[in-house]
Amino acid sequence: MSPEPTIPSMNITVLGAGAWGTALAIALAQRHNVLLWGRNPDTMAAAAAQRENAAYLPGFALPETLSLSADFSEALAHVTTAAGATTAAPATQSEALLIVASSVSGLRELAQQLQAFPIPNIVWLCKGFEENTRLLPHQIVRQVLGDAIPAAALSGPSFAQEVARGLPCALSVASVHAGLCEQVVAAVHGGNIRVYSTDDLVGVEVGGAVKNILAIATGVADGLGLGLNARAALITRGLAEITRLGIALGGRSETFMGLSGVGDLILTCTGDLSRNRRVGLGLAQGKPLASIVTELGHVAEGVRCAAAVRALAQECGVDMPISNAVAGVLFDGDSLQSVMELLLSRNPREESA
Length: 353
Ligand SMILES: NC(=O)c1ccc[n+]([C@@H]2O[C@H](COP(=O)([O-])OP(=O)(O)OC[C@H]3O[C@@H](n4cnc5c(N)ncnc54)[C@H](O)[C@@H]3O)[C@@H](O)[C@H]2O)c1
Ligand SMILES: O=P(O)(O)OC[C@H](O)CO
Known about the structure:
By secondary structure, the chain is an alpha/beta fold. It folds into 2 domains: 11-199, NAD(P)-binding Rossmann-like Domain (Rossmann fold, 3-Layer(aba) Sandwich), CATH 3.40.50.720; 209-345, N-(1-d-carboxylethyl)-l-norvaline Dehydrogenase, domain 2 (Orthogonal Bundle). It has 15 helices and 8 strands. Helix 4 runs parallel beside helix 5 and helix 9 (228-248) packs antiparallel against helix 10. The termini are far apart. The mean pLDDT is 95. SN-glycerol-3-phosphate is lined by residues 127, 157-159, 212, 215, 264, 267-268, 274-276, 301. The site of nicotinamide-adenine-dinucleotide (NAD) has 27 residues, from helix 1 and helix 4. The active site is at residue 211.
């Protein structure tokens, strides 16, 4: 077997020091010059002093080689070759990668802040539709930054805690810029992380968004003790919902059978590390949504996304009974009993319909 080629080290900035941004920064810092930026100066100062992001990813040591900052200009200087850069800027733009690791709700604001900088590229990790506009992340980025900057989504089944522990995982990078896909693969693929490429941005993003809603549904079913048969049915019929909406929005059917589709759906619906699944488990215990969300302390994207997906499905004429049932429970006060009865009483149909 021939040895893996040596990958030149890149300057990488990760914007957003939540659980996932921190975990990916830890993994990438093994091979690259990584700077992790967070907007809260106190949190970042504490993380730098303790070499641990106790607020978002407790229990994981931050490598000494990982730089931490709450200074946005410093974070951007790390990946731009602009005149006047004060930190060790990359020699060329292709030696730099800018990763945005905020929630979907923070993506627009961060992209707006980036308008003032000559960024080399942009890769985002968030999964969902923007609440009010119902836009996918790539549409938000395009609206704010235009389409001249190479842009990509990095998605797929990946619990932050497992990546931070160095456990194996496989991701999908999606972009219409083949060169950026290659660059993300060069930066992230290796060691225990595999990265596959696709140009189906819509498919990858719809899979990542809707699986969060289905994880809430599966959490409810498991919390109510409905059994493993019900869980498998929800996952499988959930995949049919993802596929229908994804195709209606322009995605390709094969993408939903991949890592960002069925892969992430299985992980999030079955893994107790999922915040979205835990929202469902909490609802099944009769806890109010607000207290579940406060207890989590992290974003559960499926909650905000459920309203957007319900509206989009209606607009596109796509049948999404499970996602609609979740929205009914979250926003209309529907009882778990009533939505279960509704789902079970639907007319029989062709499985492929
Ligand atoms: N946690 C995971 O295992 C995981 C894995 C893959 C993908 N994701 C996705 O990545 C995204 C982030 O998840 P997370 O787990 O890191 O969430 P988190 O709640 O742990 O952290 C979110 C971070 O975004 C930051 N943020 C939000 N709005 C911002 C803004 N306007 N400006 C700057 N920063 C802002 C917050 O300060 C916080 O640091 C979500 O869309 C999630 O679905 C998470
Ligand atoms: O914890 P969740 O439910 O936000 O899921 C995290 C990741 O998206 C899993 O791939």
